[in-house]
Amino acid sequence: FAVSVQNARLYAEQVDVADQLREVDRLKSEFLASMSHELRTPLNSIIGYAEVLLDGIDGPLTGDMEEDVAAIHESGRHLLSLVNDVLDLAKIEAGQMDLALERVRLYDVVEEVAATSRVLLKGKSVDLILDVPEDLPDVRADLLRLRQIVGNLLANAAKFTDEGTITLRAGIYERDPRWLLVSCADTGIGIASEKLQVIFDRFRQVDQSYSRRAGGTGLGLSITRQLIQMHGGVLWVDSVPGAGSTFYFTVPIAAPDEN
C-alpha cells in the first residue's frame, strides 16, 4: 500500500512539473513573439532611412558615405531576416500562426521567388535552373508562406553551394496525384547521413564551421518543415556528402471548385 501511495505521489509531482514546463514554454514563446514584433519597428525605420540616403533624396553622398550607408542597410536587412525567423518560430510554437489558404499558381510563385533569390548567387559559379511547367494544377496554399517555403529552400541551397547548379523542379506526385511534389537540388557540400534528421531541429545546422562563415540562425529548415506540415504536406531530404542535397516537399492540389 505504501508503495502505491508513493508511486501516486511521484506521478502527481511529474504531472505538476510537466504542467509548469508547458506554461514556461508558452510564456517563452509569447515573450519571443512580443520582443520580435517590437524589434521589427526600429529595424524597418533603420532600413527605410538607409534607403532614403542611398536614393539620394536627402542629397548626394560621397563614395565612402555611400559604402557605409550600404553596409548599414545590408546589416539591417540581415538582422530583420533573423528577427522574422524568431517571430515565425514563436508564432508557430504558440499556435498563433494561421494560414490564409487560397488557390495559388506554383509557377508564378517560383518565378517570383527565383528572381529575388538570384542575388544570393552573386559572385558564385552557380546556375539556377527552373523546371516548373506553367500548366501545373493550382495548389491550395497560403501564398505568403508558400513563397517563404520556396525562398528558404533556395536560400539554404545557395548558402552551401559555391559552384555547379541549383535546380528547382515541380510536378504531379506519382505516389499520390492529389499532391504536387517540389524539389530543390544543389551541388553543394552535402549532408552526412547521421545529420539528415537533426538539420530540421531548431538552431541546428549541417556544418557549424561552414555555417559560421555563411551565416544564419539554423531556424530556416525548422520553420520550413513546420509550414509545410501546416499545409498537410511533408518535407524530406536525400544527400551525398560532397555531391549535394535534394530537398523534397509536397503541397496539396486545389480542388476544381475551390476558390
Low-pLDDT residue spans: 209-214
Strand order of the largest sheet: 2-4-5-7-6
> What is the string of helix and strand elements?
HHEHEEHEEHHEE
Q: Which overall shape is indicated by the principal axes computed on the Cα atoms?
A: globular
User: Helix/strand/pairing class, anyone?
Assistant: alpha+beta
Beginning-to-end CA distance, first to last residue: 63 Å
Number of helices: 6
The largest sheet is: 5 strands, mixed
Helix proportion: 40-55%
For this structure, the quaternary state is single chain
Number of strands: 7
> What fraction of residues sit in β-strands?
15-25%
Radius of gyration computed on alpha carbons: 22 Å
SSE topology sketch:
Blueprint: H1 2-54, H2 63-93, E1 101-104, H3 106-117, E2 125-131, E3 139-142, H4 143-159, E4 163-172, E5 179-186, H5 208-214, H6 220-230, E6 235-240, E7 244-252
Parallel strand pairs: 2-4
Antiparallel strand pairs: 1-3, 4-5, 5-7, 6-7
Helix pairs in contact: 1-2, 2-6, 3-4, 4-6
What features would you describe in this structure?
- The chain has helices spanning 2-54, 63-93, 106-117, 143-159, 208-214, 220-230, and strands spanning 101-104, 125-131, 139-142, 163-172, 179-186, 235-240, 244-252.
- The radius of gyration is 22 Å and the shape is globular.
- It has 259 residues and is an alpha+beta fold.
- It is built from six helices and seven strands.
- The chain has a five-stranded mixed sheet. It has a two-stranded antiparallel ribbon with strand order 1-3.
Q: Which tags fit this structure?
A:
single chain, 259 residues, alpha+beta, five-stranded mixed sheet, two-stranded antiparallel ribbon, 6 helices
